[in-house]
Amino acid sequence: MYTSKLNRETDWNKIEAFMREFSFAMVVDTDEHGVPQATHLPLTLKQTPDGKYVLQGHIAKINKQWEYFGKQDTLVVFSTPHAYISSSWYEKDKIPTWNYMVVHVHGKTRILSEQELIQNLDDLMQHYEAASQHPVNLKDIDEKTLISNLKAIVGFEIEVRDINANYKLSGNKKDADFFNIIKHLREKNDQESHRIADEMEARRPVQDI
């Protein structure tokens, strides 16, 4: 992914938060013919005892993509929010564009052991069940059902090695256009436009004009 210096995010704390918030990612590998294979999966970001970061998840065993894990690098794409930017919001420019935030991660993938997979499933459920009125835990699943489901999935771990974070947020626009974009995004009735407006304003607060 091409990322200009202007749009490149390098603050690890911001990138980490983004990956955790938008954890339903696209996992891409290539098969033996060089054809890309992609699956959309929830991933858990973890830090290992030696300080490295990894992404853990699981995939249906019937999905043959797992057979290509480890043979070449895996690409993981974290994306959203995004918003259309109309050129009618500019004083002079006539070319519309799209603002977005996306993080690409490259790394080697390995298959998890059964115990590692069980731990990852437990972590996943605890995280996403936390907001539930009646949270369900892994221990609530009877052993027979759990074993049956474990046989149908493959756990994996991707070492986070190369990161490319592209935050295209109209950083090249002068203040008048920049803040007019924010104004129009806030007038739209969708959360993604509002989130993009928030991210833009965080980088160039109104009071700094």
UniProtKB/TrEMBL annotation:
Gene3D superfamilies: Electron Transport, Fmn-binding Protein, Chain A. It holds the Pfam family FMN_bind_2. InterPro entries: Split_barrel_FMN-bd (IPR012349), TR_PAI2-type (IPR007396). Signal peptide: none annotated. SUPFAM superfamilies: FMN-binding split barrel (SSF50475). PANTHER family: PROTEASE SYNTHASE AND SPORULATION PROTEIN PAI 2 (PTHR35802). This is Transcriptional regulator. The lineage of its organism: Bacteria, Pseudomonadati, Bacteroidota, Chitinophagia, Chitinophagales.
